[in-house]
Amino acid sequence: SVDAKDSLLDLVKVQKESYKSFTPGSYDNEGLESVFHSVFPVNDPLHGATIKFISCRIDDLKYDESECIKRVITFSARVIASIRLVVVQDGIPLDEYRSIKESGDLSKLASIVKFIEEQEVHLCELPMMTDKGTFIINVVEKKVPFIPDKFRGVRLPFDLMDVKGNVLLKANVRVTSRLAKKLYDDGLKEYLVPFDSICGLFLAEDSIDDVSSTKILSA
Predict the structure, then answer these.
(1) Which of 52, 123, 136, 206 has its CA 20 to 30 A from that of 185?
(2) Domain that holds residue 186
(3) How far apart are CA 152 and CA 178, in angstroms?
């Protein structure tokens, strides 16, 4: 027989994998990188220059866990970002620069760009998770509580409305199994979901066509 412990969810592993997916380098434009992409590019007030975020990475650890405890410092690593500065010729709006760039006309693009410089900069310090799933903040080792009850159900980032525009469920309200059953009993059988709201998410189980039994998407 299988040991009961083997069938239990490894909560430490869940948290470690979750934090790993947040750190740079795990997925393109996910986690921390998506945060930077949401605030870049940064333009100057006169629209003559723009700073674009390219990518970021975690620098090598300067001290290990035991050394951080001895020095009474946070167990962390530097976040190094690659950014690109583009300065256009005077009188050329950035919108025109972007339009020419999208068109692929390199000769015209070169004529309006004054200079382009790309370099790596130190953006911030990111606390690193230990193998035990904890953080060392100023010599104190802290655990991140994992409360499964808070994660039951899903939260929709948009209002759930019927064909008449009546709101059936407001955005960010947790949809539990009981609430889902109530919506089903009230006549809700299917709902079209905006693509932007599910882009980047993962399926919990395979999606199967009810008629042909063909697998549409894999979990």
Answers:
(1) 206
(2) 152-217
(3) 11
Opening angle at CA 109, ends 108 and 111, nearest 5: 65
Q: State whether 96 and 199 are in the same domain.
A: no
Q: Give the lowest-confidence range in 54-63, 66-75, 94-103, 174-183.
A: 94-103
197 close to 157: Cβ distance less than 8 angstroms: yes
Question: What are residue 80's phi and psi, to 5 degrees?
Answer: -105, 125
Which burial class, exposed, middle or buried, applies to 130 when counting CB atoms under 10 A from its CB (0-12, 13-18, 19+)? Answer: middle
For residue 164, is it within any domain?
yes
Predicted confidence (pLDDT) per residue in 82-91, tens digit:
999 988 777 6
Please, are residues 33 and 40 in contact by the beta-carbon 8 Å criterion?
no
Most distant CA pair in the chain, distance: 76
Q: Residues 132-159: pLDDT tens digits?
A: 888 998 878 887 665 554 555 677 777 7
**How many domains does the chain contain in total?**
2
Is residue 173 in some structural domain? yes
Neighbouring residues of 125: CB distance < 8 A, sequence distance ≥ 6: 74, 76, 77, 78, 79
